[in-house]
Design goal:
Blueprint (H helix, E strand, L loop, with lengths): L6 H20 L4 E8 L2 E8 L4 E4 L2 H11 L3
Antiparallel strand pairs: 1-2, 2-3
Helix pairs in contact: 1-2
């Protein structure tokens, strides 16, 4: 069960993920952003349309990666 005091934080993370997913798909060479859960928590995979995948461990890392590898 999710504690009600965490709902604003969870909603912010979901919105940020959705925004970064859209940005990844629509800028630069094009990426597919997915998320998964493992023993380290939530991980994010950015897969280039050419097939190479980078694994990242936070949405901050995803944003930084996109800043370095895409053009607006």
């Amino acid at each position: 069960m999710i504690r009600s005091n965490l709902l604003p934080q969870i909603n912010d993370l979901r919105a940020r993920y959705a925004d970064l997913r859209w940005r990844a798909a629509t800028t630069g060479p094009g990426f597919v952003l997915t998320q998964g859960r493992d023993h380290t928590g939530i991980t994010y995979a950015l897969t280039r349309l050419g097939g190479h995948t980078d694994i990242l461990y936070s949405l901050d890392d995803v944003a930084q990666f996109l800043n370095q590898h895409t053009t607006r």
